Amino acid sequence: MEGKNNMYSPKWSKAKKHLKSFTCESLKDRIDFHVINYRKAHDKLGRAVITVDKKEVLNMCTITSDIALINKESEIRHKQDVDYDVHNYNQNLEIGIQAHNLVKDEGIFAQYDFFDSLEQYFKSPIDKSLASTDMVIKILSLIDKRTGKRTLKKINEAIKNDNEVINYFYEIRCVAEGINIHRVLSNKNNKPKVDD
Questions:
Q1: How far is CA 173 from the centre of its chain?
Q2: How far is the first Cα of the chain from the last one, in angstroms, to the nearest whole number?
Q3: Helix H segments across 88-192?
Q4: Fewer beta carbons below 10 Å: N end or C end of the chain?
């Protein structure tokens, strides 16, 4: 939880252009990235969205994430039989970080998580991004033009263990590149189904 900053707000168009420049040619016109800020929100943050064929596939909403974080922190405190103590900064920080990691593992991201991942992705070599445990970074690396067909074929078995959204982006990339991976594309959570 690096910080609820809005660092990309004034620079989003430049960051988006940079991000789109990494997108593979076969998906360049199908995948898009959006940042929606809510002026009346207390932190002026909103959501970041990845769309495929103009349909939202990954919605990273700050409000949804914050609610999940509060619930997860409460759940952790209940399991550990620990009351909230406003003066115990270290304990609160530790529980907050633990809750944030658990929520991200569940695929719930805030807009600021997207920006943190984006910054890391821009600074990392593609092989490091492909091996990342950060779901957003892994998705971006799967649609990255630097990830070639040989690499996509090589990670077929390993990627099956990843979460459903990661598999979805892997599958649409493989289909777009004409790589036969012998899978049935899922259509859970209203994700667009891609035909072979």
A1: 16
A2: 39
A3: 89-105, 111-123, 126-130, 135-142, 149-154, 156-159, 164-177
A4: C
